[in-house]
Amino acid sequence: MPPADTAFTSDAIHVLITGFGPFRNYSENPSWLAVKALHDAILSTTKAQHASSANGAPRTRQIYVTVLEVPVVYENVLQIVPGLHKKPPVLPSPIDPAFTPTHLPSGGFDFILHVGVAKPGGVSLEQLGHKLGYNAVDAENKYAPVVQVPDGSDGETQPMRGFGKGYEGMPEELSTVIDIAGLKQHLQELGTEKVRWSRDARHYLCDFIYYASLAEAKRSAAEQAKMTPVLFLHCCPQGEPYQTEEVTDVIKAIVTWVSARL
User: Fold this and answer.
1) Could you tell me the pTM of the whole model?
2) 94 and 88 Cβ atoms separated by less than 8 Å
3) Domains in the chain, start-ordered, CATH in brackets?
4) In angstroms, rounded to a whole number, what is the distance separating the alpha carbons of residues 183 and 16?
5) Residue 235 forms beta bridges with which residues?
6) Angle, vertex CA 210, rays to CA 221 and CA 117, nearest 5
7) Mean local confidence (pLDDT), 164-169
8) H-helix segments, the chain
């Protein structure tokens, strides 16, 4: 952890990484276990990751990481995500005070990475977030907001749930601007063989936070002429096949690769 008076370099990159809290049979969410290891971490891009600078010399840039645990609750996601994209960012009080950030960038985050757990088999880089189709209850046994009730509903047909008020002008799907194919290749070259490129984030809280964050990035870009790249990573349960430390390494590799391209 950097001390409170850490001097940030002028070209420092500020990254937010979120993981999820407990839900269902996970008393500790594997995503948060992997993310929290990077609390207030200082990473660095490598010279090899950068194109040459204007004077012809490769350079490196420092990366300052903020982490946040997010409840697996639709309402919390809707309340929290808009603040993550503000300048300066507005974060909720941490669930565990030990993860209070020591610094928030006045100019906002340069990259936001969301992480959640999925099925065994590796990790998945998600391309899309979806606006509608959230029919499963969250960790508080509550549903996503109703967007539309079917005409002539007999009470048995499920209403359409997802993003309504405030998201009317947003499309059905939002895509990351990050080069998923290039990132997948990079991770595999580093030794993470089981990496999927996915277009289905599963219409649960992972998909929900991804769409919310992509929408806020789009909204902020229209207002402030700066698009903050957003990405969602699905990790596997612990040891299926990757251990927590290995997932943390994947996260670090993603952060440095994306940061070198900002």
Assistant:
1) 0.93
2) no
3) 13-259 (3.40.630.20)
4) 18
5) 117
6) 150
7) 94
8) 30-35, 74-84, 180-189, 205-224, 244-259
